[in-house]
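A note from the maintainers: we've had questions about how concatenated examples are separated. There is no special marker in the raw files; a new sequence line simply starts the next protein. For clarity in this README we add a label.
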Amino acid sequence: MKERCAPVADDSRTENSGAFGSYAAIGDSFTEGVGDPGPDGGFVGWADRFAVLLADRIPEHSFRYANLAVRGRLLDQIVEEQVPRARELAPDLVTFCAGGNDIIRPGSDPDDVAERFERAVADLAGSVGTVMVTTGFDTRDVPVLRHLRGRIATYTAHVRAIADRYDCPVLDLWSLKSVQDRRAWDADRLHLSPEGHTRVALRAAQVLGLEVPADPDQPWPPLPPRGALEVRRDDIQWAREHLVPWIGRRLRGESSGDHVEAKRPDLLPL
């Protein structure tokens, strides 16, 4: 018999069919919202935008949201720091995206990462209402990461299999073609742009059957053609400003999330 990410009867949900009264997001920089700057110097991101879409489904001021994600976190750190807090909060919905930072590390084993990810899903499944898991992006056209496409695809296949075993809804980013456009990505090419985060939030809402104000896979406006010299110049600038510092942090054992805390550690109204 399958374990379930969502109980058959969940009295903690709101009275509105299909609505969630509380939501906690756990993960790394993707879920924290890096690449989508907010007015207070922090980040907004897809999870915050998704929370707004969820809140629109229920009576005013009754929705509560927590975002426990911290940039740079590896899977084991997320499991140690964030999963217990999510279980303690016991929200109606948890989104769980983790393992990406592990997968891009040299020598990582996607099978091993997936086994640890599954243990965390099983841990969450008994304490929260619904667990939505998130796949990786298709990195076919992403510099550097394109060489890790096979490893990322293997991990994504594992995540989908885990979701099937635990009846979890899946936020499938691999199939979201609109985020393969370079405009969906920040200048560092590792994090989504505000528009990219918006499209992921819309897709997350679609996964739960919510009506959304726009199609997340709506085609982008055409771009003017770019010459090889312009592309090469952009690649050199990107490598100097973003790739080299990123590699340097890895070599020094540093993380962009050192000394960073979760931006919304409690379930609070939006």
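[label: protein 2]
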Amino acid sequence: MSAIRILIAEDNDLVSLTLEEQLKGLGYDVIGIARSGVEAVNLAGRLKPDLIMMDIRMPEMEGTEAAARIRDQFPVPIIMLTAYADKDTVRKAEAAGALAYLVKPINEIELPPAINIALARFKEMQTLRNQVDELEESLEARKLIERAKGILMQRLGLNERDAYERLRQRARDKRAKMKDIAQAIIEAEELLGS
């Protein structure tokens, strides 16, 4: 199994070098170091890391804003780093989508559990997002099929079961999804008018 690829976003050279050494010593692959929030967003898009460790206070763009942009553009687990542990800072990190939060100076022993938990939570979130997308698509398809059945029932005087069977048979004949056949029927109905 290949090493987990990590992007560090930290403007303090001493902190970033120490963190890089700690991570490499633990077997992680540090693929880049961003010195600003803007650079973090750019490197995240270009390097496609498995995980990002992001300082909250960064020049040009706050780490929380950079994390939110990264989350929206190319989702990746993010661990926020900060010297601050106040409630407001923690809330900002949470709102930005951070999956873990480490207070500096970072103890090397804290890194593997934080990384493993962030990766596991991210994987769970991705699975849930995929399930929600599939359910939404299924619901949308069901709505189109129901609407198309209604059109067939009205236009051809079919009962519900026969209208469904006609849709299904047409999808088989065309080697298409029922949703696509239903969409075509709806569009034809709209074109011809009721």
